[in-house]
């Protein structure tokens, strides 16, 4: 018989969080690009008098800060992956980074809206040609940043409901960074449209109006990301499809019923689960675990097994006895 050491039964709680994630390097590159363009747009917005351009520069400033938070979250999670103080590893640092980025999005959406209203009530002269030129450069830079981050985060949906059903695909930290550069691209487009309308049609009010439109759209993105990340941080149950699949696999034997099931996210694409089962002819917990394929993303599963005695009325109710 093989003699086991206690270490053989010890759980590893790293769950690959010590590996460098694709989003980390991409985020660091985008931070450098964003910081340079941010400085150019802030100076140009003040010199040329464009609120839309100034809002774009301020927006980039907020995103440089938010992207820095995302980068810090990646590095912190990786360096503390083996820290036993984290019960289930550092996977939730990812969601925390995304949550913080979402809050920053919300604050700057409010700031953009407020400043745009002030500028609408108190318009100032705009130097259109220079402002348009800088806004176009800003859009090109934002496009590059979207491409860089989009390579690791393509095909997602911004809606709150979609996120809950598909957060097995989500790197919330990367999503936060992606939404920030998408918001930058959006405000650049709106700034260009507003400046062109002001130059050729005299619609000066379009400049602050576009700032308000941008603020509304950014606030909506912020709300969706807040919902998705807070669900992870508060241990919201995993998507129903995953829970139903777990229940179906364990109850494949008519002799067994799942009486309690808790499945929650502990990091991008990984879940922990606590499962209670009752059966007339029980199996060992390890046998029940073997019914759950690794493709489900379950990395820390605790199974509680109860024997259903022949005389128990609950067994009849559960369908375990005739």
Break the fold down into its secondary structure elements and pairings.
Blueprint: H1 22-48, H2 51-79, H3 91-121, H4 128-150, H5 160-166, H6 172-201, H7 206-233, H8 240-250, E1 256-267, E2 270-279, H9 285-289, E3 298-307, H10 313-318
Parallel strand pairs: 2-3
Antiparallel strand pairs: 1-2
Helix pairs in contact: 1-2, 1-4, 2-3, 2-6, 3-6, 3-7, 4-6, 5-7, 6-7
Give a brief rundown of this model:
The chain is mainly alpha-helical and 322 residues long. It has ten helices and three strands, in the order ααααααααββαβα.
Please tell me about this protein's structure.
- With 322 residues, the protein is mostly helical.
- The chain folds into two domains: 7-233, Cation efflux protein transmembrane domain (Alpha-lytic protease prodomain-like, Up-down Bundle); 240-318, Cation efflux protein, cytoplasmic domain (Alpha-Beta Plaits, 2-Layer Sandwich).
- It contains ten helices and three strands.
- It has helices spanning 22-48, 51-79, 91-121, 128-150, 160-166, 172-201, 206-233, 240-250, 285-289, 313-318, and strands at residues 256-267, 270-279, 298-307.
- Strands 1-2-3 form a three-stranded mixed beta sheet.
- A hairpin with a 2-residue loop joins strand 1 (256-267) and strand 2.
- Helix 2 (51-79) packs antiparallel against helix 3 (91-121) and helix 3 packs parallel to helix 6 (172-201).
- The longest helix has 31 residues, at 91-121.
- The radius of gyration is 26 Å and the shape is elongated.
- The protein starts with 21 loop residues before the first helix and ends with a helix.
- The relative contact order is 0.13.
- Residues 155-169 have low confidence and may be disordered.
């Amino acid at each position: 018989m093989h003699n086991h050491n206690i270490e053989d039964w010890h759980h590893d709680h790293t769950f690959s969080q010590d590996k460098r994630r694709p989003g980390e390097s991409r985020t660091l590159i985008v931070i450098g690009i964003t910081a340079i363009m941010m400085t150019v747009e802030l100076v140009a917005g003040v010199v040329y008098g464009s609120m839309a351009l100034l809002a774009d520069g301020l927006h980039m400033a907020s995103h440089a800060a938010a992207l820095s938070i995302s980068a810090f979250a990646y590095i912190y999670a990786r360096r503390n992956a083996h820290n036993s103080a984290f019960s289930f590893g550092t996977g939730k640092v990812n969601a925390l980074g995304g949550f913080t980025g979402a809050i920053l999005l919300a604050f700057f959406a409010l700031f953009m809206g407020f400043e745009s209203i002030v500028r609408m009530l108190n318009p100032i002269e705009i130097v259109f040609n220079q402002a348009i030129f800088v806004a176009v450069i800003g859009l090109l830079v934002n496009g590059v940043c979207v491409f860089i981050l989009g390579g690791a985060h393509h095909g997602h949906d911004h809606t709150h409901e979609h996120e809950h059903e598909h957060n097995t695909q989500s790197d919330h930290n990367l999503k936060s960074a992606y939404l920030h550069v998408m918001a930058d691209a959006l405000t650049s487009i709106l700034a260009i449209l507003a400046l062109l309308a002001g130059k050729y049609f005299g619609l000066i009010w379009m400049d602050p109006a576009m700032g308000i439109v941008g603020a509304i759209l950014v606030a909506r993105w912020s709300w969706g990301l807040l919902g998705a990340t807070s669900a992870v941080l508060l241990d919201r149950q995993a998507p129903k499809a995953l829970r139903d699949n777990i229940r179906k696999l364990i109850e494949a034997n008519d002799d067994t019923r799942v009486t309690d099931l808790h499945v929650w996210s502990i990091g991008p694409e990984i879940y922990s689960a606590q499962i209670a089962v009752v059966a007339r002819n029980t199996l060992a917990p390890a046998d029940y675990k073997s019914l759950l394929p690794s493709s489900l993303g379950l990395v820390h599963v605790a199974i509680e097994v109860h024997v259903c005695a022949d005389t128990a009325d609950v067994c009849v109710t559960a369908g375990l006895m005739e």
